[in-house]
Inverse folding.
């Protein structure tokens, strides 16, 4: 029993990491600068949170009381898609109004938040809990994890790949902080999509190692 | 239903023909021998470019060895003595121009060892050639630095800093230059070969070829012998071929990949190469192109790497043809160096697919028999 | 851009998976066999081509004239999902085995398909250009999926570091593949089209 529970927990933990990594892919493509990562994180976080809230409410007041099963029906899929895409459209409208240059630099990646695994998971295609608080907290936790990873990768890529760190432009300051030694001749290949995939791969391995350490398993690096 | 489970069972028990996956790993001695066979060409490069070239080689090999030691500490397995890290570092260094800032070969070697080789489990388990991936990473990151050719000190006279291939590309960009062979284009653009070359070519033309009504273009000797600028290890075709001959004789490298690579590139360059230069079909100047850039180095020492090339013989032929075609396209249409590193990396990506396709076909008779 | 330029751009230069990092989940990390990969690649490619045209129609004939441009995202997402369902029904009629290998909900929410539709509509492509772009993107997608599946099968039998086994190494391999494809850049495109 305990073994099954442990295995189940490991699989669930592994699954969460995988979902996080894969949901990060499109975001990593567009987040070559820190500022883009910040806006992208804001988008995914807010949409996931609202999707979790709405999804949980719909499930609470819907006909079937139990939570969405893994093998969702067509209706549930379309419903989740409709919910996430409407929320994403709202985010896009707000972003265009508040920060048009951010909207321009995010480009097609802002609408793609609608089909992000994290967001869809929060909207109910993969959720197992029917408790509203639990769903919202879960979405918040995943959203924060997402944002942290995205910001870390963007920081690494921009500082080593362009020698700068780009933040919000405030009057007088254009937002670009140049790192003296790196800005002279940065490794431009780190700004490419390949670097994003490499970072995600190593991030996944690091997350796995941290989890193993937390579980008390010896660091198993060697084959 | 029964058929499907039978098929799945037979797939699970599929016995592929030898060599099996495990035999991909090169033995320790092989890597050291390959490195040794590269030394003549390396020495020539150091002689021509001097101390900067030596420093580049030291840094690239050093970074490679340090990276290997770091991963040895992580994996608790000492692997420095298998020579592969040394070879990777040497190859990365030989594909650098001598004037490159030293952080470039260091980063390229570290990337090659840590990301491309050790992340996959070390020698024999990577699917992409580490040295080429490292060089590609450097080309993408520091494209300006990778064109920093450095001053060359010739022994037969002055050596122009810009390599012939790059000078040819620059000259062909001018619209009025059409209808001439590569060396003629260079002469027309004012490219200077050494004084030694001029006198030797003049002697050959007047004494040996004039009675036959033929003549060698000035610059032929320099290009043939390798008395030109370029990346440290790629310039001397005769010395590279000497090393390659040793490796082929000792059967350390298989001849199918280099031969098919060079043959397909030669054919394509001859047939189509003249089109861009306004010379029409079958007039491409293939010999010049084979001797320029890192084609010979790539074909004999890198593309033939048993770890990243196909397992079957048919596969190796196809791989060589693919490499020749890719190098031709990348040289004539691409912008990343001379096309060799890029095409080896691209062709590596198709090797698992080639292996799968060919091995399954070869195994089919086995399956039917059981 | 000419049709040749569109084909090279969408298949190689701005490859959907390797350059835009869309559809990585379904192409790089799918647990299936080569058969499933081929099936998914073909169905996604078909879906991309059809969706691009439908997206053009929706955008040009409905959303813009009626002033509902802000509803672009829900409209496209639901249109793509609907088309995936239709595709599933059609495929089930033609070849039930094909349907079993391919997971159609996964195909429906593939970022790559939606991404291609958004690129072509926002780029102002005509119907013909959208079809060509969608097909080329599908071809590029199929190529990368098949290559990655072969690489994954090879990695499965190698003794790789345990922390990197599985998804991390697949992502790293995709990253290396992405670097290789950077050989096909805009300058390459210009030379191929111009020269």
């Amino acid at each position: 029993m305990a073994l099954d529970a442990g295995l189940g927990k490991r699989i669930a933990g592994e699954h969460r990491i995988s979902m996080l990594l894969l949901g990060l892919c499109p975001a990593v493509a567009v987040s070559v600068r820190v500022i883009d990562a910040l806006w992208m994180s804001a988008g995914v976080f807010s949409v996931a949170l609202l999707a979790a809230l709405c999804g949980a409410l719909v499930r609470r007041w819907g006909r079937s009381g139990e939570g969405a099963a893994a093998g969702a029906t067509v209706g549930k899929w379309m419903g989740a898609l409709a919910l996430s895409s409407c929320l994403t459209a709202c985010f896009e409208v707000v972003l265009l109004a508040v920060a048009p240059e951010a909207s321009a630099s995010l480009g097609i990646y802002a609408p793609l938040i609608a089909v992000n695994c994290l967001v869809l998971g929060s909207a109910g295609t993969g959720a197992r809990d029917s408790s509203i608080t639990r769903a919202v907290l879960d979405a918040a936790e995943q959203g924060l994890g997402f944002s942290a990873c995205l910001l870390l990768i963007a920081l690494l890529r921009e500082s080593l790949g362009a020698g700068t760190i780009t933040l919000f432009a405030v009057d007088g300051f254009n937002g670009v902080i140049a790192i003296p030694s790196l800005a002279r001749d940065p490794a431009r290949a780190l700004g490419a999509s390949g670097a994003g995939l490499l970072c995600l791969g190593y991030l996944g391995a690091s997350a796995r190692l941290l989890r193993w350490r937390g579980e008390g398993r010896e660091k198993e690096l060697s084959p | 239903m029964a058929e499907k489970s039978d098929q799945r069972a037979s797939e699970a028990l599929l016995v592929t023909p030898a060599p099996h996956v495990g035999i991909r790993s090169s033995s320790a001695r092989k890597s050291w021998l390959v490195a040794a066979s590269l030394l003549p060409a390396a020495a020539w490069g150091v002689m021509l470019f001097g101390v900067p070239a030596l420093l580049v080689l030291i840094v690239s090999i050093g970074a490679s060895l340090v990276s290997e030691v770091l991963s040895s500490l992580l994996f608790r397995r000492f692997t420095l003595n298998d020579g592969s890290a040394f070879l990777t570092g040497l190859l990365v260094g030989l594909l650098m121009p001598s004037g490159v800032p030293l952080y470039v070969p260091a980063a390229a070697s570290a990337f090659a060892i840590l990301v491309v080789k050790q992340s996959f489990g070390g020698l024999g388990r990577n699917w992409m050639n580490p040295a080429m991936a490292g060089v590609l990473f450097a080309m993408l990151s520091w494209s300006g630095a990778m064109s920093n050719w450095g001053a060359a000190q010739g022994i037969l006279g002055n050596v122009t800093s810009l390599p012939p291939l790059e000078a040819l590309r620059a000259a062909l960009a001018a619209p009025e230059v059409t209808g001439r062979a590569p060396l003629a284009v260079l002469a027309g653009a004012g490219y200077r070969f050494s004084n030694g070359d001029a006198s030797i070519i003049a002697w050959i033309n007047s004494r040996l070829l004039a009675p036959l009504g033929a003549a060698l273009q000035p610059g032929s000797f320099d290009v043939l012998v390798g008395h030109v600028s370029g990346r440290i290890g790629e310039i001397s075709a005769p010395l590279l071929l000497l090393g390659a001959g040793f490796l082929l004789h000792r059967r350390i490298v298989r001849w199918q990949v280099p031969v098919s690579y060079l043959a397909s590139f030669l054919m394509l360059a001859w047939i189509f190469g003249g089109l861009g230069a306004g010379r029409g079909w079958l007039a491409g100047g293939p010999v010049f192109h084979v001797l320029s850039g890192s084609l010979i180095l790539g074909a004999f020492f890198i593309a033939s790497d048993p770890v990243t090339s196909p397992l079957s013989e048919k596969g190796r032929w196809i791989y060589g043809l693919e490499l020749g075609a890719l190098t031709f396209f990348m040289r004539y249409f691409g912008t990343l160096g001379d096309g060799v590193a890029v095409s080896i990396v691209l062709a590596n990506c198709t090797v698992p697919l080639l292996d799968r396709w060919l091995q399954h076909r070869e195994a089919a008779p086995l399956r039917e028999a059981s | 851009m000419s049709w040749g330029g569109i084909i090279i751009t969408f298949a190689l230069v701005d490859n959907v998976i390797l350059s835009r990092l869309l559809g990585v989940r379904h192409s790089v990390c799918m647990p299936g066999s080569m058969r499933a990969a081929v099936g998914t690649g073909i169905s996604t490619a078909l879906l991309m081509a059809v969706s691009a045209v439908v997206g053009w129609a929706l955008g040009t004939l409905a959303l813009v004239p009626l002033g509902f441009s802000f509803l672009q995202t829900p409209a496209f997402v639901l249109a793509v999902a609907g088309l995936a369902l239709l595709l599933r029904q059609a495929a089930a009629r033609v070849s039930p085995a094909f349907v079993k290998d391919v997971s159609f909900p996964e195909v429906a929410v593939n970022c790559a398909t939606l991404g291609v539709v958004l690129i072509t509509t926002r780029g102002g492509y005509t119907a013909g250009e959208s079809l060509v772009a969608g097909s080329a993107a599908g071809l590029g997608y199929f190529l990368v999926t098949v290559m990655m599946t072969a690489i994954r099968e090879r990695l499965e039998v190698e003794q790789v570091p345990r922390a990197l086994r599985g998804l991390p190494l697949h992502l790293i391999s995709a990253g290396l593949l992405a670097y290789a494809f950077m050989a096909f850049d805009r300058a390459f495109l210009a030379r191929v089209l111009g020269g």
User: Anything to note?
Assistant: The beta strands of chain A are 164-166, 176-178. Residues 2-214 of chain A form one domain.
